[in-house]
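Ops channel
N.P.: pipeline sanity check, posting one input/output pair.
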């Protein structure tokens, strides 16, 4: 089975649609949404409707910090522009979509894989996995062979080395990476809807369980349309610029 792993969609309908189509063309058979369905972007209602339909069809969906914030759980550490987008998102969501967000778990499990937005050791703290130390703490909190997450908007892959230390690997888009179950792995799949690092193309990954490979993908989409919607909604200009610049 091939799992399509989507994180940080951030209400970007154009990016999500492009990634779903790309994953289907790659033969993905099931989907996992790794949190932050909303926030930043201008299409929270349409994105949540799409994600909920996928969940009804068997997709796994976990909750992220922006999803929490849309439910009146704004962190005091949230940046000003993010908080403005959250307030706008909260006003845009009807009760049914808020109920869907509230129903989402912080983690989900499928066989030897654990899915979480941030870290497995304290999923509700929404800690960023910026280095091998944090990655090791997250990985050691579970007996899962694979821990998949988002939150950090750039792709990265950590694996346990021969000495037990975690080693960071920078994936190349489109290249299948062997991820043997004899080791343990923590994968950050990048962001569908607000990619970082200077590349505006949407980011997601496909995990092929049968072959034990993980392939990261970058998918071009209609960035200008998504950015125009952000501006038309009156959201902060920097959010539109981020989409256009990929940073």
């Amino acid at each position: 089975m091939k799992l399509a792993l989507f994180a940080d969609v951030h209400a970007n309908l154009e990016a999500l649609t492009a990634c779903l189509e790309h994953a289907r063309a790659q033969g993905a058979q099931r989907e996992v949404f790794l949190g932050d369905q909303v926030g930043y972007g201008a299409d929270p209602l349409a994105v949540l409707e799409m994600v909920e339909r996928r969940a009804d069809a068997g997709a796994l969906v976990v909750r992220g910090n922006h999803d929490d914030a849309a439910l009146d759980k704004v962190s005091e550490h949230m940046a000003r522009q993010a908080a403005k987008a959250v307030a706008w998102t909260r006003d845009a969501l009807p009760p049914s979509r808020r109920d869907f967000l509230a129903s989402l778990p912080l983690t989900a499990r499928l066989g030897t894989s654990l899915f979480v937005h941030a870290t497995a050791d304290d999923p509700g703290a929404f800690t960023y996995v910026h280095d091998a130390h944090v990655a090791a703490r997250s990985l050691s909190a579970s007996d899962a062979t694979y821990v998949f997450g988002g939150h950090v908007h750039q792709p990265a892959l950590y694996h346990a080395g021969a000495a037990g230390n975690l080693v960071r690997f920078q994936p190349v888009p489109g290249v299948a990476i062997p991820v043997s179950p004899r080791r343990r792995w923590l994968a950050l799949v990048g962001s569908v809807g607000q990619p970082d690092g200077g590349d505006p193309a949407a980011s997601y990954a496909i995990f092929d369980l049968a072959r034990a490979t993980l392939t990261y993908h970058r998918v071009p989409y209609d960035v200008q349309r998504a950015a125009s919607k952000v501006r038309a909604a009156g959201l902060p200009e920097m959010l539109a610029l981020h989409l256009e610049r990929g940073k």
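N.P.: looks fine end to end. The longest helix spans residues 13-25.
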